[in-house]
């Protein structure tokens, strides 16, 4: 996700980013260095693993003049002390029925018209998850202008045909 975004935005400058509930692993490791300041969020029970990942990659982030911190984020309209980022990454977050509306509320609360929202989601085969994804997209499109990023425009080493990549910007006059 970030490799594509870095090319789109030109890279090379400090961007305040927020990573929203990503799996612990490769995304976290790749996120901070090219962006500068990154806030990685998840539920309270995941914080020890997230902090371990940050600590384990501190030398890399320092070398790249980046910084990463972990914060708890429960989805909904109240996002606490989190600032509005330049880029909001949402990775594989649509996975159960009750997640769509709180996730949209969170994305709305954490963005303004200048925030790039980059969403990746595995294209799941189960009918129930496909319907949930369509519902999430319908809610997202009410509040955001959404662009699908074709695989051809994504970095060849960091893309997959079964991963959907979207770019969204908050509408000035949402429905």
From TrEMBL:
It comes from Timema californicum (California timema). PANTHER family: HEPATOCELLULAR CARCINOMA-ASSOCIATED ANTIGEN, PROTEIN N-LYSINE METHYLTRANSFERASE METTL21D. It comes from the Eukaryota. Gene3D superfamilies: Vaccinia Virus protein VP39. GO terms for cellular component: cytosol; protein-containing complex. Pfam families: Methyltransf_16. This is (California timema) hypothetical protein. InterPro entries: Methyltransf_16, SAM-dependent_MTases_sf.
